[in-house]
Amino acid sequence: xxxxxxxxxxxxxxxxxxxxxxxxxxxxxxxxxxxxxxxxxxxxxxxxxxxxxxxxxxxxxxxxxxxxxxxxxxxxxxxxxxxxxxxxxxxxxxxxxxxxxxxxxxxxxxxxxxxxxxxxxx
Length: 122
Description:
mainly alpha; elongated; about 0% strand
């Protein structure tokens, strides 16, 4: 990547994709369903939990800082209610995490019972 490309990328992240008055033809708009709405709101669980025990890998949706800048600019003009979609996504994620935690607790309790039984037999 050349220095010119790096500067262009930094400007896109800072000012959005339409910073020079024209929007590239191949650009996906921030309102596209393929774009991660929780990323636009800075709370994507895939990013937040990266390198933790709950790491889930990469988000299957598009994460582009330039789209976040476009969204922030458009959000000042009118509310897009992406926060409602993000809340629903996070609630599903938390429910999944709670379910995994309960399964782990159950397995741990079973293992402790087995170990206690083995110790009692000795």
